[in-house]
Amino acid sequence: MSGPRPLRLPEHIVEIVSDAGEGAQKAALAFAQLCAKSGNGLWTVEIIPSEIRPPPHTTGSASGNRIRLAERARVTNAGNRANVVLAFNEMALLSRLEAGSLADDVLVLIDDHWATHEDEKYRLSYREVLDEFRSRGATIVEVPLAKETLRHAEDAQQGKNMFAVGILCALYSKDLDLLDDVIRDIFKAKDRRVIELAVRLAAAGHQYGVTHFDRCFEIEAHPSDVAKVAMNGNTALALGAVSAGFEICSMYPITPATSASHALSEIFEDFGGFVHQAEDEIAAIGVALGASYAGKTALTITSGPGMALKTEFQGLAVMTETPLVIVDVQRGGPSTGLPTKIEQSDLLHAIYGAPGDAPKVVIAPSTIEECYYILSIARKIAEEFRMLVIVLSDANLATGQQLFNRPDVSQTPRRPPLDLSPVAPGALPYDWDPTTGLSQRLLPGQPDGMGVTTSLNHDRNGKARYDAESNQRGHAMRSRKLAALQKTLNPPSVHGAPQGDLLLVGWGSTRGAIEEAVDVARSEGLSVSSLHIQFLSPLPPGLLEIFARFRQIITVELNYSDDWNDPLITNENRRYGQLAWILRAATLQDIDCIARVPGRPYMPVEILEEVKRILADRPGVASSAPALAAGKGVH
Amino acid sequence: MSTLTDLCLMESHASEAHTLDDYESERPRWCSGCGDHGVLAGLQRVLRKNNLDPENVVSVSGIGCSSRLPHYLKTYGFHGIHGRALPIATGVRLSRPELPVIVIMGDGDCFSIGGNHWLHAIRYNINAVVLVLDNEVYALTKMQVSPTTPDGWKTNTTPRGTYLKPMNPLSTVMGMTNISFVAQTATWLPAHLDETIEKAWEHHGLSFVRILQRCPVFMPKAFGEGGVHFPLVFLDHDDGIPVHPSLLARGTVQAHNHRDINEAQRAAVSVDPCPMGLVYQDPEVPSYEEIRWQRQERPDHRTFLQRLDAVMDRYAAG
Ligand SMILES: Cc1ncc(C[n+]2csc(CCOP(=O)(O)OP(=O)(O)O)c2C)c(N)n1
Ligand code: SF4
Ligand SMILES: [Mg+2]
What we know:
The structure holds 2 protein chains of 2 kinds.
Chain A lengths: L6 E3 L1 E9 L4 H15 L2 E7 L14 E9 L11 E6 L2 H9 L3 E10 L8 H17 L2 E5 L1 H6 L9 H12 L4 H11 L5 H21 L4 E3 L8 E5 H11 L4 E4 L6 H10 L6 E4 L3 H13 L4 E5 L1 H6 L1 H10 L3 E7 L16 H6 L8 E3 L4 H18 L2 E7 H5 L1 E5 L45 E4 L13 H21 L5 E2 L4 E7 L4 H13 L4 E5 L2 E3 L5 H6 L1 E8 L20 H10 L4 E4 L8 H13 L19
Parallel strand pairs in A: 1-8, 2-5, 5-6, 6-7, 10-11, 10-12, 12-13, 13-15, 14-15, 19-20, 19-22, 22-23
Antiparallel strand pairs in A: 2-4, 3-4, 9-16, 14-21, 18-20
Chain B lengths: L3 H7 L25 H14 L8 E4 L7 H4 L3 E4 L5 H11 L5 E6 H7 L1 H10 L3 E7 L34 H6 L6 E6 L3 H13 L3 E7 L9 H6 L4 E5 L14 E5 L5 H9 L4 E8 L6 H8 L5 H13 L2 E2 L1
Parallel strand pairs in B: 1-2, 1-3, 3-4, 4-6, 5-6, 7-8, 7-9
Antiparallel strand pairs in B: 5-9
The structure holds thiamine diphosphate, iron/sulfur cluster and magnesium ion (MG).
């Protein structure tokens, strides 16, 4: 390849944005796969317009993707502000500035056809936005996306995204042949003419970049000996469900959970499974529960509003001790909220949402790789403990892509046939071990085990009972299982030093950003560590001991907490982030939180800034919490 | 096409004939004179007649007086939550199609809170006997209006009389795609009740049976004081529910072709006199679980692993 010498970098973040429907998502997919296949570590996040048919050429219409690619194979989050943005128009570009996603010195690649557009309105807006970017320190490179595409296609809309990928291929010194393969693979279901055009446009874009750019980058890729895969979290959940041995997934469509069911529907029947799309979320969990009662391994997948509808059935699963797994791919709430965006606001609902005292297990994956493995853990617990297990994923994991070690499918356990042997004399449907609450489950079809499984309070015989003693006992037995499970868990390990001034505590997909922030802070000499909690119910053992070694404990969460500076907020009425509530209750410690609802992942740098402010404000004062510890009496 | 009974007998462990005791669990706690007793007895007789192994039958119910039935039937049973028996039953059918399923619901359970599931279960046409014990009232919760409470009747939530006309469950289900079996009977006609349940049992698909059920406690005057002054019309067909001479005192007889959907819809719409017997049957409608099982592959473990590996290949990178 001729052209400038590439600048070697350890990592870069590039965003690709267009109007909705113009294909930036496809372009990004192709570029991400190009990076993944060449061996770069990778994390991507979708940029999703808020409406289905937003008015074109507005900030609300911006659609695309953020791609963080790195020399190291393991990337755990979407990173900080973007270094490069490729925009199909200036409003899409502006939307990323408004979202706070771009570095001041960002390199902007933008389609130049607006500069000479016949409509003065567009020419003006284009100039204004670019001036604004220049004044902030951005470098602007205008590229002839539409014009060049028109030399190959009748309609610039059909294919300028492929020209754009070609440009990125040149900008990042990637192999055009590999891009060719990637594009052919992405469009394999399409007409041959479409594929050839796409490939031709990508080559043209590449050629343009190589001949016109005065700079290019290289994020070195190290093809590793270990096989890798790249996929999004919902696909990982779907493949994980298959490998965990699930047999029925009963669901009702809801963003951002639906694509997991799509991925599963595509393959499940080949593996002896079903995806059943029920008439609503209540029926969805009902079918899963019925299937599980009859002996099959069942799960249901949903998001917040669907979780709400499933609560009565959750109580039934708990009461009847029917194993069941619910995946909640969290989105912004309450109500319809921010349906496509990330939030971690269902934690308390997951733990406490069902009426009555309904102990259940709640776990959360922190990476896309974990999305694959977590359903095996969930299934195992659900079956061994006869419990309801809720898996809290989120919109960020759902749609982002990560590169990770290819799972070894040969480890997938064999699915044993149902044991329908006659029930031993004296065996009871709730033969609770008094210490652990565990019992053996009977299945329909087992001779001599006939009896009713009831939602009413019942005794060890499964008989409905209304007396205080059996009610107390049933509750204790169901609750004890959580304690028994907790005894089997390992204490979580601290990231960073085991003691210090500040411990950040997080759960779910914020882990990567928190740990990255901690690494940077520590390299700058700050005394901060972090703790990731995978088991939210029961909490893992050892928290008190870990917390005791830090001066301050603060959770970092993507959910709402009142700002200490709000005029009415006091330490009596303040509402905390959801993990903070739980930890405060469990440990009786004054645990504060960084808890916000931006509808996007935290950038490590934002957490870093908070850490610096908190540590500067010391002793024991969080930035948003003036005099949190010291000023108890003042508020 | 195999019926529920065939499937169950295939799985039979015991070859000995069962007695009625084999299907009796604890003593029923319904009020004396409650029509639910008769439905339980009828079901037990049908199970015995078909010599079903109790461990291979699953009864599923919601919440209500009627939904207590699984407690008294010595099979596997699932006494679930209000309105949701059908999704649970669908789950059982999807996962263990060899197990015959009986669903017991009240009128509030099925037509009101469970209405969505009711309509969709009919469309799925799961293979199950679905008995709605319709006493035209919410009994367990002590006499509130139900979707089938007669026009103007007083209940605790309509002390000055109901506001709306009752719904007609038969015409509702006759409007559903995939409806495959509709029958109506009453708890004060035990022989007709038994024969209707038997017919429902033999049907392959969702057999929807509305059972007019006496509740002497909260609705003593319903159904013309328990059938005394309640005009019936018995639908008659060689292949339908037999109209024994003893029934003639209770109503008129009308020739009816239950295979003809238009005729069935006409019969379903009429409420006075109230149609009794087999309203509609189409044995050819495939059941949902059958469709799903036919399309599903059951690979051995090696093939399973090979396929999973092939799926993983699609995401190979780096
Ligand atoms: C979600 C829910 N809502 C309400 C109730 C209270 N409830 C129990 S049974 C019932 C109605 C029972 O009427 P029906 O279904 O006709 O049965 P019946 O008692 O008449 O046999 C109601 C409203 C409940 N158990 N659960
Ligand atoms: S209240 Fe009515 S429906 Fe309930 S058991 Fe008594 S008679 Fe039967
Ligand atoms: Mg009723």
